[in-house]
């Protein structure tokens, strides 16, 4: 079983946490929440207890609490959880530091599990993906619904070109490449360079380089590992540019796949 003391995702997101909400301020939790809620309801979960596995600073967790779910948020990054607890202290929601590859000591069983924002890709080894899906499956009620997303090959190819984000006091560049020299042609490194203005001295800026290590996983890998974890893949949608969903994932057309799995009653 994997241990997490120096996990690459925890390191990357601890470093990203101070400006994560600024970096993702354009994310529309209402529109995407509608989409996710529709997929959840179509799969007919047995209840409304929800695990937001990889909750970040808690914005998605709060969004689903407002939709009538009873959520718990977990994230591998202590810095992200600290922000979630501070920002949403009056919400009554429990936020915990946790690695989804390990057994869940926090509540459960859950009727719905969300695992969004490339978390499956941060499991940068097939063994780690298998461990995570087994752990998530073990904390779900029979008939429980798991929804997760993952980057496609097209999504990664687009990240070969530099992307730039700017807001007041923040300038971020992102660019990545596959790492065939490491023996796994599906492994990908995204380099984030963050330039932040000092609040004490507007003429002073700091620069930090943060590596985000990911791996591209195929639909076949997801299907096999879900099955081993007692989960059935019931839908695999490609995310279209206009925000709608295609009936299947095309690795050369879509930038993300959105997957729905259901916990078997005999597992």
Automatic annotation (TrEMBL):
Recorded hits in Gene3D superfamilies, A to Z, give: S-adenosyl-L-methionine-dependent methyltransferases (2.20.25.110), Vaccinia Virus protein VP39 (3.40.50.150)
Q: What is its EC number?
A: 2.1.1.-
- Can you cite a GO biological process for this protein? methylation
Q: Which UniProt keywords apply?
A: Methyltransferase, Transferase
Q: Which domain of life is it from?
A: Bacteria
If you read the UniProt record, what top EC class would you report for this enzyme, in one word? Answer: transferase
* An example molecular function term from Gene Ontology annotations: methyltransferase activity
PANTHER family reported in the protein's UniProt record: JUVENILE HORMONE ACID O-METHYLTRANSFERASE (PTHR43464:SF23), METHYLTRANSFERASE (PTHR43464)
Name of the featured protein: Class I SAM-dependent methyltransferase
Lineage, top ranks: Bacteria, Bacillati, Actinomycetota, Actinomycetes, Kitasatosporales
